[in-house]
TrEMBL record:
GO molecular function: oxidoreductase activity, acting on the aldehyde or oxo group of donors, NAD or NADP as acceptor
Domain named Aldehyde dehydrogenase: residues: 11-475
UniProt keyword terms in alphabetical order: NAD, Oxidation, Oxidoreductase, Plasmid
SUPFAM superfamilies: ALDH-like (SSF53720)
Source organism of this protein record: Paracoccus pantotrophus
NAD as UniProt keyword: yes
Pfam families per the UniProt record, alphabetical: Aldedh
InterPro entries named among the record's database cross-references: Ald_DH/histidinol_DH, Ald_DH_C, Ald_DH_CS_CYS, Ald_DH_CS_GLU, Ald_DH_N, Aldehyde_DH_dom
Annotated active site: E251
Family according to the record: Belongs to the aldehyde dehydrogenase family.
Pathway: Amine and polyamine biosynthesis; betaine biosynthesis via choline pathway; betaine from betaine aldehyde: step 1/1
Superkingdom classification of source: Bacteria
Protein's UniProt name: Aldehyde dehydrogenase family protein
Keyword Mitochondrion appears in the UniProt entry: no
Length: 489
């Protein structure tokens, strides 16, 4: 595991020499220390990325050449997958198979953007002008120096969603992982180094968001900030970046609804509802944490959910058979428990779950189902970011859509019904950037990802993800044999 920052192709100690402890959330053991970058490190990293962009080979390479490096990084992740998955699980707490899934997706993301980098070569769009004395075309070029700031819930995967398209586009980048989970992001530096990535193209600074993250966002030589994290920090980044008109893309939180109609297969509904909220301990921005069930199905579905939630195997993510690990850290654990207590104070009933006391150490919350949550209660309105779902009945399709859309968030939404036309109708009516029909959560590198309303700005993944790192340039020529004739008549 790395103990240094990766800047300009070298491993260096932070200028001010600080470190942060790495705590295993299942055992509370401090098992490593990561370097804590501060503003002087940000300064050096931005200068390196700037030099690599302005004068280095990277943005000038053919897309097909950049693609080779991206594929080598993908292979580097795959070659070390078991070891990296083990690190990810110790760092974040998630069950090992989930870490393996994430890392395999991260490798796939580099391969996907390698293909798109190749497609950029020779990409020219002729623009048809009304005035035929001119010929015009649009070309796309790398945007410049980009900063990626990512959260702790999918450490290497969230980093890959930004690093892969940025490198494919020809940008240079500084990656700032979450202070709680920086280990695999730092390993990405070693993988990029082994892939022979030119110096300064990818720089990795672990450290506190309020310190080094803030310094990167404020830096005038940074052209773009891609952020995934909480709403308040996202809004602050947008305000800071506005000062020098940085390009900003934001992937923020959600309180996503799952509407289940009474004609649904109850067992499928139970499984997708559980996957929608208990996967990754519910620490998922798109988690379907508000479940709306058509009244005739409600009592039986609730009963089955409580039954199955009680069977979920809670344990250390490294233990075989674990389906729910600990929450990522103490503060997240306390925060989720506070939300549950507050829900009860505001009239909710805990149908199952709450604090889990099965272990002496670690940050455990059992799969929790809340009923009777008032529509204006915090539990119904605010993102909890833990294994806590609110469930309530509805009577009509219109009511379900109204309740689903009654949120300041709009990241994701799901609908389940045997009636295809109804699913399509409800999917179109949702005010959300990602909609699932008869499922919840499956995420694909090829498809756009991002939120409506306060869930963010811009889209990641797919070809939309590449657009985040490209500028569009118009090139127009005067092609007429006749003089222009404005001044020289
Ligand atoms: P957070 O906003 O606290 O931190 C996210 C990142 O921002 C971290 O790397 C942190 O160090 C950094 N940061 C904090 N303060 C900063 C500042 N002033 N300037 C620059 N950087 C700063 O969020 P979190 O607690 O790590 O993650 C949880 C949140 O992320 C949830 O709200 C969740 O919904 C959201 N999230 C969204 C998506 C999505 O795709 N929409 C995906 C994952 C998580």
């Amino acid at each position: 595991m790395q103990t240094k920052l990766y800047i300009n192709g070298e491993w260096v100690a932070p200028v001010e020499g600080g470190t942060l402890p790495v705590i295993d959330p299942a055992t509370e053991e401090v098992f490593h220390h990561i370097p804590a970058a501060t503003a002087p490190d940000a300064e050096i990293a931005v200068a390196a990325a700037r030099e690599a962009f302005d004068n280095g080979p990277w943005p000038r390479l053919a897309g097909a050449e950049r693609a080779k490096y991206l594929r080598a990084i993908a292979q580097g992740i795959r070659d070390r997958l078991p070891e990296l998955a083990h690190i990810e699980t110790r760092d974040n707490g998630k069950p090992l198979p989930e870490s393996e899934w994430d890392l395999s997706d991260a490798a796939g993301c580099f391969d996907f953007y390698a293909d798109l980098a190749e497609e950029l070569d020779g990409e020219v769009e002729e623009v048809k002008l009304a005035d035929d004395r001119f010929a015009s075309k649009a070309v796309r070029e790398p945007l410049g120096v980009a900063v990626a700031i990512v959260p702790w819930n999918y450490p290497l995967l969230m980093a890959s969603w930004k690093v892969a398209p940025a490198l494919a586009a020809g940008c240079t980048m500084i990656l700032k992982p979450a202070e709680t989970t920086s280990l695999t992001a730092l390993e990405l530096g070693a993988i990029a180094e082994a892939a022979g990535l030119p110096k300064g193209v990818l720089n990795i600074l672990s450290g506190k968001g309020s310190v080094v993250g803030q310094a990167l966002v404020e830096h005038p030589q940074v052209d773009k900030v891609a952020f995934t994290g909480s709403g308040p920090v996202g809004s602050r980044i947008m305000a800071t970046g506005a000062k020098d008109v940085k390009r900003i893309s934001l992937e923020l939180g959600g309180k996503s609804p799952f509407v289940v109609f009474a004609d649904s297969d109850i067992e499928k509904a139970v499984e997708w509802i559980m996957f929608g909220i208990f996967w990754n301990q519910g620490q998922v921005c798109s988690a379907t944490s508000r479940v709306l069930v058509e009244a005739p199905l409600y009592p039986r579905l609730l009963e089955r959910l409580v039954e199955e939630a009680g069977k979920i195997r809670i344990g250390n993510g490294l233990d075989e058979g674990t389906l729910l690990g600990p929450l990522v850290n103490k503060s997240q654990y306390e925060d989720v428990l506070r939300h549950i207590d507050r829900a009860v104070e505001q009239g909710a009933t805990v149908a199952c779950g709450g604090r889990y006391d099965g272990f002496d150490k670690g940050f455990w919350v059992a799969p929790t189902i809340l009923t009777d949550t008032a529509l204006d209660s915090d539990a119904w309105v605010e993102e909890i970011f833990g294994p806590v779902v609110c469930i309530r009945p509805f009577d009509t399709e219109d009511e379900a859509i109204r309740l689903a859309n009654d949120s300041r968030f709009g990241l994701a939404a799901a609908v389940m019904s045997a009636d295809e036309a109804r699913c399509e109708r409800v999917a179109r009516a949702f005010r959300a950037g990602i909609v699932w029909i008869n499922c919840s959560q499956p995420t694909f590198t090829e498809a756009p990802w991002g939120g409506y309303k306060q869930s963010g700005i811009g889209r990641e993944l797919g070809r939309w993800g590449l657009d985040n790192y490209l500028e569009t340039k118009q090139i127009t020529s005067f092609t007429s044999e006749e003089p222009w004739g404005w001044y020289l008549k």
